[in-house]
What does this fold into?
Amino acid sequence: MDENRRVEEDGRLIIYKDEKSKFYQMRARPDGVRRYVYKSLRTTDYVKAVSIARKEYRQLEENVEKGRASFFL
It folds into this structure.
C-alpha cells in the first residue's frame, strides 16, 4: 500500500501527500460535478486521512444529489 497516494471510488477520489505540505490532500469529482474539488485533510496520519476523505466524498455526493454546489464546500 502506497501511503503517498490512494485511489478510490473508481478514480473519483484520490488521497495524496504533496511535497509542499505535511498534510494529506484529497481530490474528488463525484458524478454530476464537472470540476475537481481539492481539499486539505489537515492530518499527517494516513489512516485518519483515508477516513476523513471518504466522509468528505460522501458529503459531496449527498450535496450533488440535493442540487447544492459542491465546489463551495
Summary: Residues 5-72 form one domain. Residues 17 and 24 are 5 Å apart (CA to CA).
